[in-house]
UniProtKB/TrEMBL annotation:
Residues 1-25 form the signal peptide. It comes from Ralstonia pickettii OR214. This is Outer membrane lipoprotein carrier protein LolA. InterPro entries: LolA/LolB/LppX, OM_lipoprot_carrier_LolA-like. It comes from the Bacteria. Keywords: Signal.
Length: 215
């Protein structure tokens, strides 16, 4: 799934830089913005798990038409995430701290798809963000927070020149849940993910627990 690779490159770029020590920290648009970011993080962290449908649209400079895919996402804060792509090709990506496992339409592992470079870091970043912990992002981005806790928008722009070489910016919006993520790369490519029908999940089903390696 090309979209997952795009997200991975974005997160890996941020994480490679976050492994280094920077003296400067990200800033917000005044005390009100800082308070809103804290409120959003606390609100997102209330859910142990989330199940949602998604539509992902990739606009690539090298292609005339956008690439669109859709499916479902299960995110469990302590275990990982299961992305099931229904269209245009049925595939499943299981993302944990151990890496990424790609499965075919019959949930059989695909050769050469496990433990790609940086996927453990990608998993931690995605899970931290969806769990309401924005600290990994917050340490590397300038943050412009708008709205209120019931309807918020966060615009993240790279605070470090090295990060700006890979990313132009990230936009997140939502309410009780993350509803939209937009990733703009420095090359001009853009990935937009919309999450719909989000619901809380306390315990994944038996099949999902098996995929995530949970007892």
């Amino acid at each position: 799934m090309a979209g997952l690779n795009t997200i991975a490159r974005a997160w890996v770029a941020a994480l490679m830089l976050s492994a280094c020590t920077f003296a400067s920290a990200a800033s917000t648009e005044g005390p009100q913005g800082s308070t809103l970011v804290s409120q959003v993080a606390a609100q997102l962290a209330q859910a142990r798990g989330v199940r949602a449908q998604f539509v992902q649209t990739q606009s690539l400079q090298a292609m005339q038409k956008p690439l669109v895919s859709n499916g479902t996402l299960l995110f469990m804060r302590d275990q990982g995430a299961v992305w099931r792509i229904e269209q245009p090709t049925r595939m499943t990506y299981v993302i944990t701290d151990s890496g990424v496992t790609a499965l075919d339409a019959n949930d059989k592992p695909m050769r050469g798809a496990r433990n790609a470079a940086g996927v453990a870091q990608v998993s931690r970043m995605m899970r931290a963000m969806l769990a309401g912990d924005l600290s990994a992002l917050y340490s590397q981005f300038n943050v412009n927070a708008q709205g209120n806790v019931g309807r918020w928008h966060l615009k993240l722009t790279p605070a470090q020149p090295q990060l700006a070489q890979a990313l132009r910016g990230l936009d997140l919006s939502g309410d009780t849940y993350v509803r939209s993520i937009r990733i703009q790369s420095a090359s001009g490519d853009e990935t937009h993910i919309e999450f719909m029908e989000s619901t809380r999940v306390e315990v994944p089903n038996a099949g999902e627990r098996t995929l995530l390696g949970a007892p």
